[in-house]
Design brief:
Elements: H1 2-5, H2 7-28, H3 31-34, H4 37-41, H5 47-54, E1 57-60, E2 63-66, H6 67-103, H7 107-132, H8 140-173
Antiparallel strand pairs: 1-2
Length: 174
């Protein structure tokens, strides 16, 4: 438990806390407060991009996602929003793994706890959106997206950790 009081622990916790605060703030806003559509409508996409966007159509959480159903601005905003889910949870997981490796000597236990916490954060984020209301729609698909971002962040963090350990080991031999 001495490691919890160590200054390095606080330094490692700061980026996680900041990202979680940003996520909490974001999920507390109504759709109207967050929408980028008015700004995006003022921008124009090249014809080749519009043609490519017109070719994409799929169902997400029971709704059709296409330029025909959402318009170009709404379609682009959909991908920006979902990309934000992945990036936020990638970042949480990446920095959380670094903190957990500092606190827990077992890489396997640190990785499993990381994954469990990321899933818990994903559920709590969607629940927070549910409480917010105002056009926000919490979905299981977003939890899957958040978890995917978390797994990607954990994978990259693990790769960085393994590479760092190898470099340290090799430096010790020379």
């Amino acid at each position: 438990m001495d490691k919890i009081k160590h200054p390095v622990t606080l330094i490692l916790f700061i980026p996680i806390a900041l990202i979680l605060l940003i996520a909490a703030y974001s999920s507390s806003q109504t759709y109207e407060q967050q929408t980028l559509i008015p700004v995006m409508k003022s921008l124009s996409a090249p014809d080749w991009l519009r043609t490519a966007m017109d070719q994409v159509s799929f169902t997400y959480a029971g709704s059709i996602v296409s330029t025909q159903s959402l318009g170009y601005a709404g379609f682009t905003e959909f991908f920006l929003r979902k990309g934000a889910h992945v990036i936020i949870f990638f970042s949480i997981s990446f920095f959380l793994f670094r903190l957990l490796i500092h606190l827990i000597p077992s890489v396997k236990k640190a990785a499993l706890l990381n994954l469990a916490l990321v899933i818990l954060f994903a559920f709590s984020d969607e629940f927070h959106q549910y409480l917010t209301g105002g056009g926000r729609t919490p979905t299981f698909q977003d939890i899957i997206l958040d978890t995917t971002g978390g797994i990607l962040g954990l994978t990259v963090a693990y790769g960085v950790f393994v590479r760092y350990k190898k470099q340290r080991k090799n430096r010790g031999r020379s």
